[in-house]
Structure formats: structure tokens, C-alpha cells
Amino acid sequence: MALAAATLQSLMDIVGDSRVRVDEQSLATWGVDWTKMYTPAPSAIVFPSSIEQVQAVVRLANDAGFAIVPSGGRTGLSAGAVAANGEVVVSFDYLNKITEFIAEDRAVRIQAGVVTEQLQNFAEENGLYYPVDFASAGSSQLGGNIGTNAGGIKVIKYGMTRNWVLGLKVVTGKGDILELNKDMIKNATGYDLRHLFIGAEGTLGLVVEATMKLDRAPRNLQVMVLGTPDFPSVMHVLREFQARLDLTAFEFFSELSVQLVTAHSGIARPFESATPFYALLEFEALSDAMSDEAMAIFEQCVEQGWVVDGVLGQSETQAKNLWRLREDISETIAPYTPYKNDISVMIARVPAFIADIDAIVGAQYPDFRVVWFGHIGDGNLHLNILKPDAMEKADFFAKCKAVNVQVFETVQKYNGSVSAEHGVGMTKKAYLTYTRSAVEVEYLRAIKQVFDPNGVMNPGKIFDPA
């Protein structure tokens, strides 16, 4: 759907002629995320460079009747940033500055387009640490991380993005600018609207600025990879290590993951033995006694039959390569057009839950290769089904969707989430009620109506209009 010439000119008047693009390549580049299920069809891409310009674009959307889709690093996995219905994409590529460092509060004020790795590096340069980390840190933007409440590989110790947001500046769907929480740790003055915008996927308004909390940098991180004979053993290993050490990460992945990553990247297998599953754990070895404790736990797990083999990184390079076994999985499987599920349950329910899911997958996809990995330390599983080379993409996605009901009925059975950290977007929208009750969804719609009465903000994401 093309914009009216007058509306297009109004956008150019706001941001400048060179900051509005309608060419085919730009529309295809900025109208998507990492999902492959929807064809991008935006009407224009707009690149504001100030909060005032963002506000003017939102107000124009209300007056002219077009919809807005926010665009950050476009690394999302739920089609939350896909503009499939003629929307105007608002890119934050030029709102990418770190504007203030507040040392006394261990806080940093940033614009929404700041890349995650940019913030991580800034923290390190100032002797601090930003702990929310994931494979797309080099391209994902903080506004998108906030919009999806991104998690990643350190959640077991540091929590989700939500835990690190001290304050927000947002442009609501009505075009109002709100400054939320004013960057304070303690602020008991009614509803904390900041938390409504965290995880809202741009459906209430646009995050334009955030104040992020930083932490002390971890010291002497040690990485172990342990091979286990079955999945329940992974959970035994988690319980034993977590009872005696303060873990900063606990991840798991399957043997097929190791085969694909080592073939793709050329890094070595962690050890000679091949086992069905692997656990990667990380901890701070603040003393020799803590390193000795880790080895004692490892030996106990071997004696119990929970671990077949293992390795402790002996150098920074080896530790990085051990991490690559986990972090390179998404990049490695991307060419296979994977069908992804990002699901979670309480940690105590994980063994029974994964057994049920594995049975469904084995019965329904006997000829498909399935890659398991995830942040098992916080109950988050990533189920990836790889498209066979000879199968058309549409046929593959249709077959996967046909089994979704069984998968999500199992999620509901264990009182879990159909989306642990990737958001709902369009890919999980039809399954929202497996996690949220119908009454809850009505409250969500009512909240959206308050902030976005004309429905201009990322419509069709999370839920459809009533």
C-alpha cells in the first residue's frame, strides 16, 4: 500500500529528504527481522535523528492514518519488526548515541539505537559490566532488547533486560513523550509504567531513550563443557553445581548442534566422546578453593553416571571456543531455514516437559533433523526443526505449524510460556492464549487502547484488535 504523496512529503519535512526511503532494496532490508515466514511490504522507511522527530512522525501517523513498525537491529525471531501490511518503518539507526555516564549510580543513558555490544564495550571501558548477552549482541539494538525483554545466556545470575532498565523515555501511540521512573532505584509513587513498555514490542509506543544499570565486572570466569548420557542428567548436573557454586551461566545443547557447529566453524569438539547432550557452565573462580570445588563436583557427577566426559577451559582462547559451541548454533543453522520454538517452564518441570515434547517431535517429524539448545538454567528451551533441502519452504512451515497445537498444549499442561524471550510478534500470536488467559488478553487490549487509541503502533503484533 503506497503512501499518499502529501503524507510522504510530510515525512520528508520532518526528517529530511535523504532520511525517507521508498526504494525496493531499503523496503526489503528494514521491513524484516530474522524470521522467514512473512514477506516484507512496508510503504516507507523513516530515519529520525531526534526524539522530537520521532514524536512528529507518530503524530503524523495519527493524523494521516498510517501505521508504524519500529525497527532496531532486526534480529528478532517472532516477526515483531516485520512490516507486512504497508506500514511505515521507523528505524533507530541514527538515534545511536550514549549520552551520559552516571558513575555514582553505575548507570548510563543511551538512545534506543545503541547496539548491545556498544553498551557492553562502554561498560568495560569504565570498569563495569552490562550482563545481558546473546549471539546477536553485535547487531541487536537496546530499544529492541527492551521491547522484547531480551534474555540470553546470563539470565541464571543476572536476569532479563527488565532487571537493568532504570528509566525510559517513550513516545506513546498518541504522540505524548513520557519520562518513566526518572532513573531511580527507589520510587514508590504509583504504577510503574516503565514495565509496561518493557516487553510490549512497540505496541504501546516507541522507546527512544533508556537509562541502563551496570554492574561490577566478573572476575576470573571459568568455563566447563560436560557431556551427559541423557537429558535428566543435565538437570542433575545443574542441581549439583548450583547448590555449591554461584553460576553465571548454564546452557545445554545436543550432539547434532556440536556436529553442525564444528563442521561450520572449524572449531574442535570439546572432547573425543560424543554424548547425546552437553552442559556448558560458567562461574567466577575467585579463589583456588572454588576451582577445586568445581572439579570435585565434576568428579562426583562422573561417579554418579551423570557425566561421561568433560573439559575445563585452560586459556581465554579455549574458553571462547567452548562458548562458541553454544553461541554459534543460531548462525550455523540459519541456512537450513529452521522452524524455531522458544518455550519455557519452571526449572523443576523441565525433565518431564522435554520428555513430552521430544515424544511429540519424534512421532511427528521422524525424518526431520531437530536441534535442541537453550538456557536450561532458567527453564528456557529452544526447539529448532531443520528444513530438508528438497522440501519447499511453504510446505515445511505448514507441516511444522500443524504440530504447534500439540507442542503448545504441552506448554499449557506444564503452565509454561509459548515465548520465553523472543516475544510474540506475529509468529506466536495465534498461540497467546496457551500462556495468557482470555481475561488477561482483554486487559492487554485495554492497556493498548489507553496508550494507542488509534491503533497506529505496530498493529497485528501480540494480538489482533478486538
Provide a brief overview of the structure.
This protein is of the alpha+beta class and 466 residues long. It has helices at residues 5-15, 24-30, 51-64, 116-125, 142-148, 155-158, 194-197, 231-244, 255-265, 288-303, 316-327, 329-333, 350-364, 393-413, 438-451, and strands spanning 20-21, 44-46, 68-71, 88-91, 98-102, 107-111, 128-129, 165-172, 177-180, 205-213, 215-216, 221-228, 247-254, 277-284, 309-312, 339-344, 369-375, 380-386.
Tell me what you see in this structure.
The protein has 4 domains: 5-91, 2-Layer Sandwich (Uridine Diphospho-n-acetylenolpyruvylglucosamine Reductase, domain 2), CATH 3.30.43.10; 98-216, 2-Layer Sandwich (Uridine Diphospho-n-acetylenolpyruvylglucosamine Reductase, domain 3), CATH 3.30.465.10; 221-330, Alpha-Beta Plaits, CATH 3.30.70; 337-421, 2-Layer Sandwich (Alpha-Beta Plaits), CATH 3.30.70.2740. Strand 8 and strand 9 (177-180) form a beta hairpin. It has helices at 5-15, 24-30, 51-64, 116-125, 142-148, 155-158, 194-197, 231-244, 255-265, 288-303, 316-327, 329-333, 350-364, 393-413, 438-451, and strands spanning 20-21, 44-46, 68-71, 88-91, 98-102, 107-111, 128-129, 165-172, 177-180, 205-213, 215-216, 221-228, 247-254, 277-284, 309-312, 339-344, 369-375, 380-386. Helix content is 35%, strand content 21%. The chain has 466 residues and is α+β, with helices and mostly antiparallel strands. It has a 7-stranded antiparallel sheet with strand order 15-12-14-13-17-18-16, sandwiched between helices. A 5-stranded antiparallel sheet has the order 5-6-10-8-9. Strands 1-2-4-3 form a 4-stranded mixed sheet, sandwiched between helices. The protein has 15 helices and 18 strands. The model has no long low-confidence stretch (mean pLDDT 94).
